[in-house]
Amino acid sequence: MFCRLACVILLSRKRPNMRNWLLRQAIVTEQFRDLIAKPGERHLVFGGTRAGKSSWIDWEMRAIQDERPDCMQLLIDSKPRFRAEKERMLLNVRARRNCQWRYQHWQKGPILPNSVLVDIWADHPFRGLWHDPGEIAVMQSGDSGDWKRMLELLMFFARAQVTGRERHITADEVLDFYGRTTWSLSNKNDVFYLVARSGGERAIGETLGSQRVKGLPILIRNMFSRITLFHLTENSDMAYLRDNGIDDVKSPDGDYVFRQWVKQPGGLVSQPVTGKLALPEWYLNQLAST
């Protein structure tokens, strides 16, 4: 069977009054599935350039796609760095066609399987989406002028009355949508805060990626369900995580090495799981060097 899922090597799991213990390498089934965002969770993923943050986000979406195909996933790609696989047909919005011609000038960039590019300026940009199991909608633009439109559509997505289906928002570089003062680019459409505050009750979760901890509003950080941390370029950012009950003095070192904390019932933060994301060679070949 073709391996669509990455590997995780768990290096250690700290438990109260127990010594660290070693887990062997495992294909993403139990181990990785235990570490991805669950329905309604708020997952923060931090890491500097090439540390593994975006790859984690990519494979988390694939794992949700595989494990929970009814989930309506929406990716906000503001670099952009991911290649959507398909786009809607003009006259039949439930039909799909290949859209790789849109990326003909890209040298690198992973293709997200079963993904559909969203025309953010269409009259009905979401019409015809999420009918196929596991389909991921992709809103992407590197133009800051488009980002407010993306926030507007995200707010529509989050406030829509959807019965019986999970929704999950993923942002690869969430700080693109916040200014230096941590205020949203569109104060009336601060959808990431809205989902962090009330998404769990409405089965709307989010995974927010960021190269830095500094700059992300503390109100969002305080409502996290889990935090996955790769190496940070600015180690001083760890001070901001200490405000959230994470006391490690430095970020992880090593290629694709991460730590993850989960907020437990009662509000306390778990001891960290430490692991390494082991990615297949065919996937690594798709990644840019920056």
Features:
290 residues, alpha/beta, Rossmann fold, 13-stranded mixed sheet, 7 helices, 20% helix, disordered N terminus
Topology:
Elements: E1 7-13, E2 26-27, H1 30-35, E3 42-46, H2 53-67, E4 72-77, E5 83-88, E6 96-98, E7 111-117, E8 136-140, H3 144-159, E9 167-171, H4 191-198, E10 204-210, H5 218-221, E11 226-229, H6 238-242, E12 257-262, E13 273-278, H7 281-284
Q: How would you state the average pLDDT, rounded?
A: 86
The proportion of residues in beta strands is: 15-25%
What strand order characterises the main sheet? 2-1-13-12-11-3-10-9-4-8-7-5-6
Instruction: Let me know the largest β-sheet.
Output: 13 strands, mixed
Low-confidence spans: 1-5, 14-29
Rg measurement, Å: 18 Å
Q: What is the CATH first-level class name?
A: Alpha Beta
Decide which structural class fits the backbone.
Answer: alpha/beta
Please count the beta strands (DSSP E, at least 2 residues each): 13
Q: Could you give the order of the helices and strands?
A: EEHEHEEEEEHEHEHEHEEH
The number of helical segments is 7
Which architecture does the CATH hierarchy give at level 2? 3-Layer(aba) Sandwich
- Range of helix content: 10-25%
CATH superfamily: P-loop containing nucleotide triphosphate hydrolases
Shape: globular
* Total domain count: 1
CATH topology label: Rossmann fold
Distance between the termini: 32 Å
